Structures are given as C-alpha cells and as structure tokens.
Amino acid sequence: MKDVVFKADPENPAVLKINSGDTVVFECRDAFNQTIQKPEDLPINFDMEKINPATGPVYVNDAESGDTLEVHILKLDVADQGSCCIIPNFGFLAKEFTEPWTRIIPIKDGYAEFSDKVKIPIDPFPGTIIVAPSKVTHNHGTLIPKEYGGNMDSRACTAGTIVYLPIFVEGALFGVGDVHAVQGDGEVCGTAVEIDADVTIKLVVNKQKKIKRPQYETDEFFMTTAWGETTDEACKIALRDMIEWIVEEKGLTREEAYALCSCVVDMRISQLVDITPGVRAVISKTVFVD
C-alpha cells in the first residue's frame, strides 16, 4: 500500500482494513516526500504540511482503546539512493550550521556511499511508527514523538524488532514512514540517510499487555522509550517504565529493579532534534534466569 497521511489524527480515513496477524507491505516515501532527488535540491521552503509522510492508515479489526498493537518489523527494502541534508534553523548545532546543504547518497551492495572516502553499512529502520491519538493535541503533524509513537527516530526499530504501541482509537489506525538507511543515535544534524523503502510489517492486537508509551523488543533486548522537554526528563520516564516492566514481568521489588537498572541497563539517546528529545532504556534479557 502507498497512501499517506501527514497528520496524527483520529479522523484520518483508513485506506486498508486487516485482521490481527496479517502482514502488510508499506510503500514508504522518504521524509522529504521525494522532493530531494539531486544535489541542487536544497532543504529550504518546504511545505511543512507535506513533510514526513506516513503510509496508511491501516485499520486493524478488533483493535480497541486500551489494547496494545504489536508491530513486527519483518523486512525493509530500501531504494538505490537516499539523501542527507542540513536544514537551516534545525539540528542540534543549528546556530553553527546556518546554510542549507544536500548530499545525495547512493546505496550499493548494502552500503551507503557517503563519499569516495566514506562507506557506511546500511541498517535501515522506519523513523516514524504511529497509531492515531484519541485527539489532536498539537500542530506538528507526524513530526514529533508522542505516547502514540510518531517520529521516534530510534535505530532500535529495525528488522527483527517488535514495537509495542498503546492503542487509543478503534482500529488503531496504524502508519509507518520516514525510513532511514542508516542513522547514528541522536540524528544530530536533523536528518539521517533519508530514503524511500518498502517495509514489511505484521500487525497483532494484544489485549493483555497494557502500556502507556511505546516499547521495543528483540530476541535479546527489551527497551522502554520516552520523550521530554529535556533528555534528563526523558531518561527518568524511560527508566521508571523499565523499573515497572521488571517488577511486573520478572517479579523483582522496586528496589531490586532500580538497582538492577544501575547494573545492567543502558540509557541511549534516540534523537536530539525533534522538539522533544528521545531516549531508550535497554536491558539484555539474558540476565534473567528462566
């Protein structure tokens, strides 16, 4: 499917209805909505209402408010070129880099060819993974992360990861986009290797799991994630969620869980540039004895 939306809105009409457990291939446009195709295309004068498209939304039968949507990321097939840009007045060092800049980056044999001196192994993931909120609370479209997901820009969300999203409206109204061929934690200049891609996802409704914010899981790791006005605030929220998960899922006391986090949990920055900085708390599941 290739229909897109540019706003997190419960009024977005569903373009596809599926059953829990079905698999969908999403044809995703890059975050620039395919407006950056050559070096001369500079990241200026964007129509901000047509940025960061999310393919969808998909209505999942039997999904209800209070449930959790399991987003099983199965496969990502990226296009043969992407782009990385410096956008004026955007990025972690925006005051130091004020001029627009574009680099077109070919993808060849599993590498992003940043220049003749730099080739980066690709590790693609969708930066935006989203369900509809119960109501619209801001005017940033799909551009900022919230409790319903959105522009999380977490490189942890690659093939093999399950993303858990709390559901707020009937059918969930799921969308995905903003694929990055590769990104460093932080996405410090505001863009990664932005690229078109086909993303294969299985969607499962989980009526037992109850969460406040997105969580991630792989075969080896479990992760909580959060955003705040500062990275400190985001870290505290993600840490509290991790403590809660350890207590509920593993049966430790809060004191044990807090101390365990100090011993084994990594606090990692996901992005520093999307208005509210995002972090994730990461624990290896191998520390728990079955």
pLDDT < 50 stretches: none
Total beta-strand segments: 18
Helix content: 10-25%
* CATH 2nd-level architecture of the largest domain: Sandwich
Which topology of the largest domain does CATH recognise?
Jelly Rolls
Shape: globular
Radius of gyration: 19 Å
Chain oligomer state: single chain
Going by CATH, what is the homologous superfamily of the largest domain? Acetamidase/Formamidase-like domains
Walkthrough of the structure:
With 290 residues, this protein is mainly β. It folds into 2 domains: 4-206, Acetamidase/Formamidase-like domains (Jelly Rolls, Sandwich); 223-287, Acetamidase/Formamidase-like domains (Endonuclease I-creI, Roll), CATH 3.10.28. The protein has 2 helices and 18 strands. It has helices at 231-250, 254-264, and strands at residues 4-5, 16-18, 23-28, 54-60, 68-78, 81-86, 101-108, 111-115, 118-121, 125-130, 149-151, 162-166, 174-180, 197-206, 215-217, 221-227, 266-271, 278-284. An 8-stranded antiparallel beta sheet has the order 3-14-5-12-15-16-18-17. A hairpin with a 2-residue loop joins β8 and β9. α1 packs across α2. The longest helix is centred in the C-terminal third of the chain and has 20 residues, at 231-250. The N and C termini lie far apart (41 Å). The mean pLDDT is 97.
